[in-house]
Amino acid sequence: METTQESFPDQGVPEPLVAASVAASVAAASAAAVPARLSLPPKGACWYCDKPLDSVRRFCGKSCATSFDEEAEYTR
Fold first, then answer.
1. Model confidence pTM above 0.70
2. In terms of Cα–Cα distance, which of 59, 35, 63 is closest to 45?
3. Mean pLDDT, rounded, for 52-74
C-alpha cells in the first residue's frame, strides 16, 4: 500500500519552487509597504510645500508627508 503523499502528488511543483515563490511575494509586499518618501534625499526644503527646512528633514510636518504619499499613490 502507498502513503497518502504518494497517492496525492503536489501537482508537480517541487517544494523549493513553492517556497521561492512565497518568499518573492512576501518581498514584493514588503517593498510596496515602504513609502516612496523614504527614498527621497533631504534637500533643505519640504518636498511637498517647499517650506525651508534643515538639512535632515524631508517634510515640514505629518500633513505634508501624508499629502505627498497620497499624491504619489494617485500618480502611479
1. no
2. 59
3. 93
Q: What's the CA dihedral at 55, 57, 59, 62 to 10 degrees?
A: -160
Task: Give the per-residue SS3 of the chain.
Answer: CCCHHHHCCCCCCCHHHHHHHHHHHHHHHHHHHCCHHHHCCCCCECCCCCCECCCCCCCCCHHHHHHHHHHHHHCC
pLDDT tens column, 39-61: 899 999 999 999 999 999 999 99
- Reading the block at residue 4, the C-alpha cell is 497518502
Cα→Cα distances 14→4, 18, 30, 69, Å: 17, 7, 25, 40
